[in-house]
Amino acid sequence: MLIGMIEGVTRIIGKHQGYRGLPLRDEMINCTVNGDATPVMVSAWVPTPEELERLNAGASVHLRVLGTAHPPVILDVGDVPA
Q1: Which pLDDT tens digit goes with each residue over 11-44?
Q2: What percent of the chain has pLDDT over 70?
């Protein structure tokens, strides 16, 4: 997956730590566990043509989290680009 530029980006994280830099959009959501106005960070990812071919053939999306403790995450699909 390639890092995408999320619409409405509010900050870029990780660049000073040696990573490529991840554009984020800070939002608030209504969460059934954490309640109203739960802060979240949204990033955009774009599949390469080879990954898109595998996805269309039925491959799953894998999420890798660095470390040994797994934070709550949400995966979904963004809007179709205009």
Answers
A1: 999 988 888 899 999 999 999 999 999 999 999 9
A2: 100
What residue spans define the domains of the chain? 2-56
Contact yes or no for 37/31 (Cβ under 8 A): no
* CA distances, 33 to each of 30, 37, 72, 73, 75 (Å): 9, 11, 10, 12, 17
d(CA 16, CA 51): 28
The end-to-end CA distance of the chain, in Å, is: 20
Closest C-alpha among 37, 8, 39 to residue 24: 8
